[in-house]
């Protein structure tokens, strides 16, 4: 059974003698003597939660002062104050202070009272410790809950990394923490919280034989309570403590989290447990964020590919202009709009004069560049509502909406001829080109697409017969 330590405070020998005689035959009690309130408490007794027996009559001060001094000198301890007088008014006994008359010493129950008092103090102390441990664990669980929420609420990798760093710093009151990714046997910097600031740009490289690489390769945590005593830091000495934890999914190491202090520190089991829990959560959050980013990229790539396919299906690969398919869709819409609004519009069909001579003289590469340059010149002089399309070869089609009379298309035809007659300089060659244009008017020259295009072709042929670099308005 535990020894009950008694502190006896008195400078009178008879009082201490009475106490010694009272407990001489009782092995569970050990007596320690003090002769004044200022004397230090023996360390052995203090560590074992002593009971203090005070001879109040031996103290020169009045009751008021010694009782307050006793509470200050022996906080949390049980004080049994013995006096030859009745307990003074205004100072009743309390949980930690008992005022008793001297006659109590001769009572056979007095030692049992002290035993009970000792058990009471021990139970209170244990209860207080349990409460403290419980509060600490509740605080830890609350921190873990907050950390888990921060990690699971974010799908952005940057946000996840910030949540990991912030949580690690808060859980163990660290000075800085770092996260590294581990792929194909190589560590790469991910993020850090250093000197109170989040770091995004890499500012440190793990040593090949350092603690971070060892944890990544072995997949096991490493705890260093004092870096000055570890050989692994001899080539890069610094003073502090560090925990390096693998971020794992199953047996696969995704990265490493380092939590460091700038002083030696003995990491407790609770600190290591809570950091390991955070590392498990961090690994899941990082994997989810990466999978989300990959999925988003795949969606973006698919949309981009779909857009490119759709564009290729409706546009000429060489010039980027709408092709025959898109032209047909646009002219159908224009016919429907014109019928609905009782409007009219023009269609032009034209090709380039003497393109074969350009190809023969300068090569097909220059011919292709010529077609691209012509497309850009046409786009520059047309309205946004106009549609210019390449039919293939050197043939182009143009839709001019909202024309009231056939002659309204003539100014546009003249601008086209003027723009194309200006020499082009391609790869150091001067290339001269012209065009022949046939013009038709809806609905005067046809109400069906094929009829309009046939008549436009007839008008263009007549323009060529006139020597080219001309336009001709279809006449039935």
Provide tags for this entry.
476 residues; alpha/beta; Rossmann fold; Beta-Lactamase; Alpha-Beta Plaits; 3 domains; six-stranded antiparallel beta sheet; five-stranded parallel beta sheet; 45% helix
Unreliable residue runs: none
Provide the number of structural domains. 3
CATH names the topology of the largest domain as Alpha-Beta Plaits
What's the gyration radius in Å? 48 Å
User: Alpha-carbon distance between the termini?
Assistant: 126 Å
Question: How would you write the strand order of the largest sheet?
Answer: 8-7-6-11-10-9
Query: Would you tell me the overall average pLDDT?
Result: 85
The CATH architecture of the largest domain? 2-Layer Sandwich
- Name the helix and strand elements from N-terminus to C-terminus, one letter apiece: EHEHEHEEHHEEEHEEEHHEHHEEHEEEHE
Number of extended strands:
18
Helix content: 40-55%
Tell me the fraction of residues in β-strands, as a range.
15-25%
State the secondary-structure class.
alpha/beta
Number of helices: 12
- Mass-distribution shape: rod-shaped
Q: What is the CATH class designation of the largest domain?
A: Alpha Beta
General description of the model:
Helix content is 45%, strand content 23%. It contains 12 helices and 18 strands. The protein has 3 domains: 4-122, Rossmann fold (3-Layer(aba) Sandwich); 154-293, Beta-Lactamase (2-Layer Sandwich), CATH 3.30.450; 324-473, Reverse transcriptase/Diguanylate cyclase domain (Alpha-Beta Plaits, 2-Layer Sandwich), CATH 3.30.70.270. The strands form 4 sheets. Strands 8-7-6-11-10-9 form a 6-stranded antiparallel sheet, with helices on both faces. Strands 2-1-3-4-5 form a 5-stranded parallel sheet, covered by helices on one side. A 5-stranded mixed sheet has the order 13-14-12-17-18, with helices on both faces. Helix 9 crosses helix 10. The protein has 476 residues and is an alpha/beta fold.
């Amino acid at each position: 059974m535990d020894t009950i330590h008694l502190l006896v405070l008195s400078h009178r020998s008879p009082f201490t003698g009475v106490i010694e005689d009272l407990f001489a035959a009782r092995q569970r009690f050990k007596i320690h003597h003090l002769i004044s309130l200022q004397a230090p408490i023996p360390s052995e007794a203090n560590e074992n939660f002593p009971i203090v027996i005070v001879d109040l009559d031996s103290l020169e001060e009045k009751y008021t002062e010694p009782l307050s001094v006793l509470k200050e000198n022996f906080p949390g301890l049980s004080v049994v104050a013995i006096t030859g007088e009745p307990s003074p008014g205004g100072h009743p006994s309390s949980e930690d202070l008992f005022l008793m008359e001297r006659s109590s010493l001769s009572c056979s129950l007095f030692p049992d009272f002290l035993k009970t008092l000792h058990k009471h103090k021990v139970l209170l102390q244990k209860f207080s410790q349990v409460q403290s441990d419980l509060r600490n664990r509740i605080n830890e669980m609350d921190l873990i809950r907050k950390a888990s929420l921060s990690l699971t609420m974010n799908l952005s990798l940057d946000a996840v990394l910030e949540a990991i760093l912030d949580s690690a710093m808060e859980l163990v009151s660290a000075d800085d923490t770092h996260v590294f990714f581990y792929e194909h046997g190589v560590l790469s910097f991910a993020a850090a919280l250093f000197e109170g600031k989040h770091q995004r740009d890499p500012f440190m490289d793990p040593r090949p034989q350092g603690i971070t690489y060892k944890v990544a390769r072995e997949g096991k945590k490493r705890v260093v309570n004092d870096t000055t005593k570890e050989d692994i830091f001899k080539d890069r000495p610094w003073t502090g403590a560090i925990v390096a934890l693998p971020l794992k999914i199953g047996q696969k190491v995704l990265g490493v989290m380092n939590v460091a202090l700038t002083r030696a520190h003995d990491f407790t089991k609770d600190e290591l447990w809570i950091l390991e829990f955070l590392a498990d959560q961090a690994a899941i959050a990082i994997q989810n964020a990466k999978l989300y980013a990959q999925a988003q990229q795949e969606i973006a790539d698919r949309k981009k590919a779909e857009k490119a396919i759709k564009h290729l299906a409706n546009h000429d690969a060489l010039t980027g202009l709408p092709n025959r398919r898109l032209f047909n869709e646009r002219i159908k819409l224009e016919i429907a709009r014109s019928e609905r609004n009782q409007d009219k519009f023009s269609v032009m069909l034209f090709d380039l004069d003497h393109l074969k001579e350009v190809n023969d003289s300068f090569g097909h590469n220059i011919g292709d560049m010529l077609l691209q340059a012509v497309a850009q010149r046409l786009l520059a002089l047309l309205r946004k509502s106009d549609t210019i399309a390449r039919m293939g070869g050197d043939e182009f089609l143009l839709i001019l909406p909202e024309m009231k009379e056939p002659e309204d298309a003539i100014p546009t035809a003249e601008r086209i001829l003027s723009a194309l007659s200006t020499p082009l300089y391609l790869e150091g060659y001067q290339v001269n080109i012209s065009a022949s244009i046939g013009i038709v008017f809806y609905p005067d020259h046809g109400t069906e697409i094929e009829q309009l295009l046939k008549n436009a072709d007839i008008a263009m042929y007549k323009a060529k017969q006139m020597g080219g670099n001309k336009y001709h308005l279809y006449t039935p």
